[in-house]
């Protein structure tokens, strides 16, 4: 979604913009500033807003862990959560990589086995996070990762022409709560239904973020390990 479209949606909620009408350049800058202020305030309260970012890194043969963050082995913004990953080999063939939890990684009995990784545990420490691929890479192949990172004003919503990609459950609370913040500047009153949706969607956002911090549960069947005869209660399947 374009930042300008998000701003327009908010203004339409309070009747400050008609359908098909374009925001004036000056008004765009003001609305963008209000958006940035709101997201900074949410972040200060622990309600961080994330955008999906794709990174590609080269693995090193025999290296079992990689630091991630400014100055780390993976030298880009440290992510909060890994959404998905795959290995891209020299023939540009993709090989899926499962994102596993800390508990699942601990359950692997022999972590030094080498091969093409098909699982990955991300330890979101600060200031550097750490990526643990399993098995330990045996070739210098590309690791492609989709992750959630906090919005960065200079990159994620610094301009009204920027494109935002964020989890679907963020759109409604951002649009409706921004509408409430913009209403006084436009001399508009906030419709009761807009205020209700703003509150409900904000509360749901907090709940959604909390749910995503809960670690999945796995049951390890005796006689096998996680990547042998392991059974996952989440997928109802053996590996």
Overall number of domains: 2
Per CATH, the superfamily of the largest domain is P22 tail accessory factor (Gp4)
Average predicted local confidence, pLDDT:
84
Strands in their spatial order, largest beta sheet:
1-9-3-4-6-7-2
| C-alpha geometry | elongated
Task: Write down how many β-strands occur, each being a DSSP E stretch of 2 or more residues.
Answer: 12
Strand residue percentage: 15-25%
Extract low-pLDDT stretches: 213-239
Distance between the termini: 38 Å
CATH level-two architecture of the largest domain: Orthogonal Bundle
Order of helix and strand elements from N to C terminus: HHEEEEHEEEEEHHEEE
Whole-number radius of gyration? 22 Å
> Could you describe the largest sheet, including whether it forms a barrel?
7 strands, mixed
Reading off the top of the CATH hierarchy, the class of the largest domain is best stated as Mainly Alpha
Helix and strand content put the structural class at alpha+beta
Estimate the helix proportion, in percent. Answer: 25-40%
CATH names the topology of the largest domain as Hypothetical protein yqbg
- Helix count, DSSP H or I runs of 4 or more residues: 5
Topology:
Elements: H1 3-13, H2 25-44, E1 50-58, E2 66-68, E3 81-88, E4 94-100, H3 102-106, E5 114-115, E6 119-123, E7 129-134, E8 136-137, E9 142-150, H4 171-182, H5 192-211, E10 218-220, E11 230-232, E12 237-238
Parallel strand pairs: 4-6, 5-8
Antiparallel strand pairs: 1-9, 2-7, 3-4, 3-9, 6-7, 10-11, 11-12
Can you tell me about this structure?
The chain is of the alpha+beta class and 239 residues long. It folds into two domains: 3-48 and 151-211, Orthogonal Bundle (Hypothetical protein yqbg); 51-149, no CATH class. The protein has helices spanning 3-13, 25-44, 102-106, 171-182, 192-211; strands at 50-58, 66-68, 81-88, 94-100, 114-115, 119-123, 129-134, 136-137, 142-150, 218-220, 230-232, 237-238. The strands form three sheets. Strands 1-9-3-4-6-7-2 form a seven-stranded mixed β-sheet. Strands 10-11-12 form a three-stranded antiparallel β-sheet, with no helix packed on it. It has a two-stranded parallel ribbon with strand order 5-8.
